[in-house]
Specification:
CATH topology: Rhinovirus 14, subunit 4
Order of helices and strands: EEEHH
Structural class: alpha+beta
Number of helices: 2
CATH class: Few Secondary Structures
Helix content: 10-25%
CATH architecture: Irregular
């Protein structure tokens, strides 16, 4: 096996946009996430709808969903 060809594997800090920070091992020292398990709708059970130009209302009106 060749020496000194592998990247350094050290402690790394991962931070999410929601403010959660945790320590992991990685070759990249600092990582920033847009969404994590603490704020993702699948894990939290809270659905966030982003309505662009009334598309959600148009869909609900068309199919009679309230």
């Amino acid at each position: 096996m060749k020496k000194d060809i592998h990247p350094k594997y050290t402690d790394a800090k991962v931070s999410c946009a929601c403010g959660k920070v945790w320590e992991v091992k990685s070759t990249i020292p600092d990582q920033k996430l847009g969404i994590c398990s603490a704020c993702h709708p699948f894990f939290t059970g809270q659905q966030k709808l982003v309505d662009t130009a009334g598309r959600v209302e148009k869909f609900r009106k068309r199919y009679g969903i309230k």
